[in-house]
Amino acid sequence: MRYSFKNKDRSLPLYVDSIGYMWHQESVNRPNGYPYIHWLQTYSGSGIVTIENKKIILKPGTGILINQAIPHKYSPIEAQEWQTGYFTFGGSLVSEITTVLGFNDYLAIEKPEDRLINFIKHYYSDFEQNSVDPYFSSSLVYDFLLLIKKYSVKNPNNYQLDTHIIQPILNLIYANYSEQLTNSDFTRITNYSLQYILETFRYNQGMSPQQILRDHRILKSKELLLNHPELSIEEISQLVGFNTNSYFIAQFKKVERVTPGKFRKFYQ
Questions:
Q1: Contact at 8 Å (CB) between 131 and 83?
Q2: Which residue intervals of 131-206 are DSSP H helices?
Q3: Radius of gyration of the chain from Cα atoms?
Q4: pLDDT, tens digit (0-9, with 9 covering 90-100), for 62-88
Q5: How far apart are CA 258 and CA 263, in angstroms?
Q6: pTM, 2 dp
Q7: DSSP state of 36
Q8: What is the pLDDT of residues 167-194, one digit of tens each?
Q9: 103, 65 contact by CB (below 8 A)
Q10: Quick check: 84 and 133 in contact, CB under 8 A?
Q11: Which one-letter DSSP state was computed for residue 41?
């Protein structure tokens, strides 16, 4: 069973794209990713999700959150019937909100709490009966993201890693993003090997510290582009820590799909 919003209010900070419950899941291959954030969970059977050459098994009661435009594929294991639920969503501020909540490329969840694992089941009938308007659906997306954040905070393994590795590095990035931070800085403040740091960030944050640093610099550059029209693109690139103006423009376009100059013009 599937419900898809045909007329989405794309001006909303968050909106629902589709929701599916007890779906007979077939194989999916998205080399360019999906245009919306995608939550996928297993009700029965099992499936295997492949992201960046990493294989993640989705057994009953487990789920995975995959960000926009992240290449991935998934399929049932050994041709058995795989029943899933899924919830896809986007919004004008979805990138900013997910960044603040600490979600990046993907997040595999082995032991979701009951409210998270039953979220689709609880709300699917409302969507099916057309009793959910776009504004209520926007609040549902935010509630869903808070459940994801709550899992990340309460998971005991995540807590230790967050205290000793993740948070110290994030604090360093947020306070010193304009400086030339290297992987050596991350190993220095945590006293862990670079390999272990990268594995920890990839599993828990879905991306490396350097990718988080890049995204934070882009976020800060957007603030400067909108709030300081007197600053040139080159000046902004230097203020947020990029080595060259051309590299800043290339990275900005990669993340935002437009150049810094066009981004600024959108809001003038």
A1: no
A2: 134-154, 156-161, 167-176, 183-190, 194-204
A3: 20
A4: 999 999 999 999 999 976 799 999 999
A5: 6
A6: 0.60
A7: S
A8: 899 999 999 999 999 999 999 998 888 9
A9: yes
A10: no
A11: E
